[in-house]
Amino acid sequence: MANEIDFLELYRQLRVSPDCSLEEFKRAYRRCVSTLHPDRKPPGHEGYKNSRSGQRLQQLNVQYEAAMEFHRLHGRLPGAPPPSVVTPQRVNPPPRPPPPPPVMTQASSAVPRRPHVKWLIPIALLAICILFWGASAVTPPSDGGNDNATRDNDATLAEAPAAPTLTLGMSPENVRTIEGNPVEIRDDLWEYGPSWIRFDHGSVIDWYSSPLHSLKTAQARPPTAHN
Question: The whole model's pTM is what?
Answer without folding.
Answer: 0.34
